[in-house]
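Folds abound. Consider this:
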Amino acid sequence: MKTNTYIKLLLTGFLLGFVLAAFAITDEEIVIGLEALDDWEAAYPLALQIAREQNAYPVWREVAIKYSQFDSDNRAYLQAWQQAYLLNQESTYRDFLNIKPQSSLNHYAISAIFKLIRASDKFEGYLRFIAEFSNVVESIEALLKTHEIAFQRAKNFNEPLVFDAFVMTFYGAKQIPQAIELAFETEKQRIEKELSDIDNIELREKIARRLFNEGRIAEKQHAPLVAARKYQLLNLDIFIDTKVFTALLDKKERFAYQKLMQTKQNEIAKSIKEMRDAIIETLQLKTQLMEPAMVKELPAQNPSLEKIIARHNYLLVQQFKQLNKNIKAGSHIDTNVAELIPVLTGLKIAKVIGKISLIITKTLANPSKYQAILFGSKNN
């Protein structure tokens, strides 16, 4: 009898345990069930709890997107940013931009993307950034970086026609005067080497005639850089007593080089001013509630383009630190408040970048062999 009672109790306990186990569903399953019932409001707190436990970017991202109408205090969205920041991957930052395309917080992600591109320091990376984010201050910095890389490639190759390609491709680049001078110096050295015997009058006349003819041909071929350089070479001391130089004395071509340099200097000054003005205007819009006096004084101070970019980067870093500090402290943050940098205020920057980068974009489609050297690509 006692044995039967023991067996019954054992079976009852087993069945009870089986029933309880059957009903022990996970939080994830509860959330899925509530979502299936279209009860998103009830599912949201539990989804938040799951996200806190797992604390990973994909989970916070999913909560921020699925429950956007209930995430009024941006808890999930801001935690998604925190995880993206910790991962520090370009692909993650780009994905973050899609959570709330119009959010002011996106500028931090764009800035982080640029920092990664700047760390790799690749020409194509900067061009890609300019094409995608043409309305932010970082796009101007990216443009300046393309100038630096292309000019260094031109110097490494040390060929006059490559320097010419740089001048014609990168409108307004501050390195243009130096590129023109280096092209001249390179060709000058070749001529001096060719004319090692300066007492050879016949050879000097021959080279002078060749330079003059090459200048004329370049003019007809609409190659003003080549033409100006050829005429300027005729001003070298070794050609002063040649018949060609004498004939050139009263011709306007003699001053083509100086006019070219002045034209390029004017273009550079105009380009730099346009970029400076665009950044200052954007900074003034972005910092209406932060250091307004300092930003307002920028035009009067007439700082260099590099200093203005440095000021922008400084302000961004300060805001960046404060944002992350507030998130960690659990402070309430409205991602649309004016203190955060609006991503769509750099319309003037976009206009400037569009004009300057247009030549580069067109050239990339079908570069000459000299432009291909600047781009770091193989010529067709």
Q: What stands out?
A: The two ends are 97 Å apart (CA to CA). The first helix runs from residue 2 to 23. Residues 1-76 form one domain. DSSP finds 20 helices and no strands in the chain.
